[in-house]
Amino acid sequence: MKTVFSYVRPYKWPIAIALFLMLIELSVELVQPLIIAKIIDDGIMKGDQSVIWTWGGVMMLMAFVAFLSGATNSFFASHASQSFAFDVRSALFKQVQQFTVATFTKFPTAGLITRLTSDVTMVQNVLFMSLRIMLRAPLLVLGSVIMAFIVNAYLAMFLVIGAPFLIIFLYIMVKKGVSYFALVQVRLDRVNRVLQENLQAVRLVKAYLRGTFESSRFEKVSNLLKMDTVKALRIMEIILPLLLLVMNISLLAVLWFGAREIQSNNAQIGELVAIVNYAMRMTGAFSMFAFIIMAFARAKASAERMEEVLLVNEGLERDDESGKMHGIIKGEINFKNVTFSYPNTPEPVLQNISFDVKSGEKLAIMGATGAGKSTLMQLIPRFFEVTSGSITVDGKDVKNWPLDQLRQAIGLVPQQSLLFTGSIYQNLAWGKVEASTDELQQAAKQAQIHSSVEQFAKGYDTRVGQKGVNLSGGQKQRLSIARALVRKPEILLLDDSTSALDVKTEASLWEALDKEEATMLVVTQKIRTAKGADRVLLLDNGRIAAYGSHQELIETSDLYRQIAESQQEQEVPSHAPDVN
Ligand SMILES: Nc1ncnc2c1ncn2[C@@H]1O[C@H](COP(=O)(O)OP(=O)(O)OP(=O)(O)O)[C@@H](O)[C@H]1O
């Protein structure tokens, strides 16, 4: 909680002003019964009109001051709470940006979204309400007791007789409330996750006619959220009437003993009215307690969830050399006895992998699905650290290159083409913000997408929908390649990025890419692509099955030869009509 509350500190002055104004409002509220008592005892009972007019005027004036204080308090309270929420949300976002890829597996996406939205809003609301009304309720109870003792100590005693019960009830409410509401937020995470998965796979859901199944899946998690929220609220619903019961018994005692005191001339009617007034205000404040405690319990649970993210320390990308440059990266890559296991998975996915790729060379990586090809690629930009062995770029361990410089030198085209909402221009410039129009178009030409883009009505200004929904698979792949090429990377990592291209386009693409000076690592299933590489690395179940030029592997590797032969049979005869 300390970390989250440190974000409140910059707003200590607006908070102090808001609290001060709230105290003015509270003082007015506490003094009012005293004035009413005075009007009754010295004005009405004695028939003195001037007392009624004078103190009535004072009451009006005080009400006006309370109104002004309340309005100004709202201004400062919303400034402080909104600014706090903005700061903490930004801090959470920055922290998440620094997560290693491995840390993301510990914090599922839907959970992170809830933490950055619903959880932050929850704490923000409680901060606002605390400055507006929440702190007023306990202070009103305390102030009423003190004022009641000033008016008539004997009668006031009956107001505090139930205090031990009240404290016990409140304690139970807080304790149970926090744990129940923590569970409610977890349920909300689940609802978000199911919703997110469903929306992302909307076409699949329709194609597989899984709408009913998905609806029932959503209903199930939504129902769990409902049941746990009801459970959390129930504790409040039981305790609130108990609180009010204790207060009403106290009130009855005050009326009973008050009447006797008036009869025996030990108290005046105005005093009794004042104490009853304080008792009523206390009851009102207590009835707000359920709501306040519920909100606090919820905010505490939310603050703890935000704190979990803010306190991640081990799972952050560490780069002591951040912002520095260590010479120029030429792009020579060397794997030496690299073994790698994913976090939480003991079995290694890659074992004893060694190979060299000289600067400007092209290495084709082949192997069955799940052989570890994508994993191998991801180790170069350090999405994960090797378990043992080493990876060097230009002879220097990747761990020793400044992370920014290393990644700046890499153009990564992942297996799944991910595009962002925005124009085609914006998507290409994502690879290099300062790229000129010429550079962007040059990259698009190399990636064989320029002419397709030109055919769109709005050309490069065509808007790409979320994740590129309005583009074909092949268009997305080529745009992803262009985005990487814009960077003019020294190392180009292509993870099966041409699978959706037709033979002719793919051939033109490779022809254009071969003119690039970049070192290329190309995951491919196609012998045709491997043939054009300087060397081929054939993976089998995380181990190297064969390594050498295409010709060498044809001669030495049975597995490679089998793949080549199987693909030869499927090759399109050269006289076949051009499908394009
Ligand atoms: N984040 C992860 N956590 C744990 N295991 C993983 C993770 N990602 C992949 N794996 C496992 O690592 C192995 C290699 O996966 P990888 O994606 O590298 O294979 P691949 O050769 O690229 O396969 P494909 O050709 O199907 O893309 C698989 O057995 C996979 O289940």
UniProtKB/TrEMBL annotation:
Which intervals hold domain ABC transmembrane type-1?
Answer: 16-298
* GO MF terms, alphabetically ordered: ABC-type oligopeptide transporter activity; ATP binding; ATP hydrolysis activity
Localized where? Cell membrane
This protein's GO cellular component annotations are: plasma membrane
Q: Does the keyword Disulfide bond apply?
A: no
Which residues belong to any copy of the ABC transporter domain?
A: 333-566
Q: Which keywords has UniProt assigned to this entry?
A: ATP-binding, Cell membrane, Membrane, Nucleotide-binding, Transmembrane, Transmembrane helix, Transport
List the PANTHER family hit by this protein, alphabetically: ATP-BINDING CASSETTE SUB-FAMILY B MEMBER 10, MITOCHONDRIAL (PTHR43394:SF1), ATP-DEPENDENT PERMEASE MDL1, MITOCHONDRIAL (PTHR43394)
What is this protein identified as? Answer: ABC transporter ATP-binding protein/permease
Q: Which organism is it from?
A: Paenisporosarcina quisquiliarum
